[in-house]
Write a structure and sequence with these properties.
0% strand, elongated, mainly alpha, 4 helices
């Protein structure tokens, strides 16, 4: 529902990354119902927060040349 309504460009890999950062930082859940609860309870705001923080971290390790496509170069 998040992908179709709030974040249409969200990939599976991004969603999984957010789950590991927010919900499963101490390990994978032991039961299927816990996984389902975690997936269904995550909010779009949480996803945006984690992914934007990760983008800042990733950007710190890049040079201006890495962003040349954004600037039309």
């Amino acid at each position: 529902m998040i992908q179709s309504e709030s974040l249409p460009n969200l990939s599976y890999d991004q969603f999984e990354h957010v789950l590991w950062k927010i919900k499963w930082s101490e390990g994978y859940p032991k039961h299927l119902y816990q996984i389902i609860e975690d997936i269904m309870s995550i909010k779009a705001e949480e996803i945006v927060k984690v992914l934007s923080t990760q983008a800042v971290i990733d950007g710190r390790n890049q040079t201006l040349n890495d962003f040349s496509t954004l600037f039309g170069g």
